[in-house]
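Researcher: Predict the fold of Glucosyl-3-phosphoglycerate synthase.
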Amino acid sequence: MADFHQNGNITTLHNLGTHSLEAMETELLKFSSQRPLGLILPSLYSELGTKALPGIIKELKQVPYLAQIVIGLDRASEAEYCHALEFFSELPQHHRVLWNDGPRLRAIDAELQKMGLAPPEPGKGRNVWYCMGYSLATRKADSIALHDCDILTYKRELLARLIYPVANPLFNYEFCKGYYARVADNRINGRVSRLLVTPMIRAIKRVMGESDYLNYLDSFRYILAGEFAFRRDVLRDIRIPSDWGLEIGVLSEVYRNYNSNRLCQVDVADNYDHKHQDLAVEDKAAGLNKMSIDIAKAVFRKLATRGMVFEQETFRTIKATYLRIALDFVETYRNDSLMNGLEFDIHSEEKAVELFANNIIDAGQTFLDEPHERPFIPSWGRVVSAVPDIFDRLVEAVEGDHQEFSRSGQANGFKYA
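Model: Structure tokens for Glucosyl-3-phosphoglycerate synthase follow.
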């Protein structure tokens, strides 16, 4: 059973084991009559062939309260998109698959690119951004959850607990972030969160001084969790990064736009396991190597917008301070692992810390060398201002793909001009 401790300046909603899934889903079904509920699933086509996604679909088929499911599909050919339509057709809820690589959505993306309004690079951030835009365009959901498609331990209770805080009309939360324990294969996982982000934040505070923003980030129990839930208006106003800084970027944006009493975090699972990224020591463009650089840059950018001044010497000091704090964390996690009968590899943990320490310097140097970099995708509010009919065109493109390539559309002889 979880504790009930509140730390930092973000409300923590615990799982005390006293609210059954059946009772929670009954309440959510009632809430949905006043505030329709939706779900965003950003997916790679390759994830359709994993163990995780079929399990997620099996669980979602039993969810009674969703008005809409939006699936963002990346890296898919026409044949693969058709397969995806068939794969997701099992869902009883209203759902649509955004074929991000299809000619209709590519045409919209090319037009927005020319105007400087589209994501600068492919990836999860781009996928999520277009799913957000489509969700706004259809207006089928007022509270929307988002989670990944590689969760091996997925149970529908995760979704219920994630969306409940923004669905309950008695609550005033605009944004909710999920958290959970990362223990699988008899070891503690989540290296980037526990060995990079938390010790780096504390190192920056020690070097640069306390700040409300850093204390805010330090309040989240699993800061890199990819599970969020939003009220609809949040999606219109936030700007998100297109790289691995997505989770930090989302937290930064809701911090900028809302008071802390409108934000919360919730315990969504007793345990959580998903696809693991390699450390990729020799390749800075892959795995946890790239992820750690992107995340560090995201933090530095945000601090700069809040008036912090960085120089090369600053990053060297942060690195040295981080290294000491992170190595202390390695000892802490070793002791925690031993106490709980888990395996612990000190060599691999310290190897990760050394990589992350060097990447703090690399991220800092990139930050200094590229002052004109545009890290954030523009908000949908800005896009609508520049292209007033963009939502109608998004819906038309997605419906066109669905009708042309789904079995029902082909059976009716549908032709899309």
